[in-house]
Write a structure and sequence with these properties.
Elements: H1 7-18, H2 22-33, E1 39-46, E2 54-58, H3 60-63, H4 68-75, E3 84-90, E4 93-102, E5 110-116, H5 124-185, H6 192-211, H7 213-220, E6 222-224, H8 225-240, E7 258-260, H9 261-274
Helix pairs in contact: 1-2, 2-5, 5-6, 5-8, 5-9, 8-9
Length: about 290
């Protein structure tokens, strides 16, 4: 049992909590609280982390059953700075619970619920010590969360960037397919049967490319320059089919060179939009 009358021991306990990373803060605090208020489990409800508002540590049979709804109801009767002890439903059972709450600056507030060992009734001194430790811990948690937010936002931005890249690639592919289909259907050099056959081949080819898992792999990693050129060359060839435009294809000197997916995708989109368009007015003002 720690001697809390010894300033050195008290400061060591506080330092142990302050040195803990975010994921270890509650377990570290629970270890310190063992000397103050023996317990089976602890749980915290924080208003500063919408991604994960509750954390729990201790007896697994209890922690897996604790819900945010239970802690929210408990928080409605616990005032910041005033320790509370009474009966409350936690982990699905009405049981004795000790709770403290704290609202440090620039914080929405946090509450700590402690399920004491059986037949344990906290004294005023124990309650005061737990309150002070929780006040210290919440300040530490707020500081850690403020540092974690940019990382969380960066992950969101990365995910949004991947979605935008996928949308851009799909948009380019759909535009290429529609442009090719219109070019075939409006061509004056094909009869109806040939136009339908060519349009069908073009649509089937587009569907195969859309469903290809190779496209998903390209979006996630890299692609050889030669493979990217062959793919784009085939697409541009379909778009230029049955038009008066001649396409010159010059393969890369080093076809094995790896290209980032962003570069390959940008080239694909550029090729789709610079290819011959059937919307170009007919020569001599003749209708299509």
């Amino acid at each position: 049992m720690r001697d809390w009358s010894d300033p050195r021991h008290t400061l060591e306990a506080a330092l142990a909590v302050l040195r803990a990373p975010l994921g270890e803060t509650l377990p570290r605090l629970a270890g310190v609280l063992d000397d103050v208020l023996p317990h089976r489990a602890v749980a915290m409800l924080t208003g500063d982390c919408a991604e994960q508002p509750i954390y729990a540590h201790g007896d697994a049979e209890l922690t897996v059953e604790i819900t945010s709804a239970e802690l929210s109801r408990l928080s409605s009767v616990v005032d910041a700075g005033t320790p509370w002890f009474g009966e409350a439903v936690v982990a699905g059972v009405n049981r004795p619970v000790f709770a403290v709450a704290s609202v440090p600056p620039v914080s929405a507030g946090s509450m700590l619920a402690v399920i004491p060992d059986q037949h344990t009734v906290p004294t005023a001194k124990q309650g005061s010590m737990v309150q002070l430790l929780w006040d210290l811990t919440t300040v530490h948690i707020v500081d850690l969360l403020s540092e974690a937010v940019p990382v969380y936002l960066a992950e969101n931005r990365a995910a949004a960037s991947e979605r935008a890249k996928a949308v851009a690639e799909l948009t380019g592919a759909h535009a290429a397919t529609l442009t090719g289909l219109l070019g075939v259907l409006r061509s004056r050099t094909l009869d109806d049967a040939a136009a339908r056959r060519t349009a069908t081949n073009l649509a089937v080819s587009a569907l195969m490319e859309l469903r290809s898992t190779a496209d998903e792999e390209r979006a996630a990693s890299e692609e050889a320059a030669g493979e990217a050129f062959e793919r784009l060359s085939g697409t541009v060839g379909l778009l230029a089919m049955h038009s008066d435009v001649e396409v010159e294809r010059v393969p890369p000197e080093n076809g094995q060179r790896r290209l980032p997916s962003e570069v390959a995708n940008a080239a694909s989109v550029s090729s789709h939009w610079t290819a011959p368009s059937p919307a170009t007015p007919c020569r001599d003002g003749a209708p299509p």
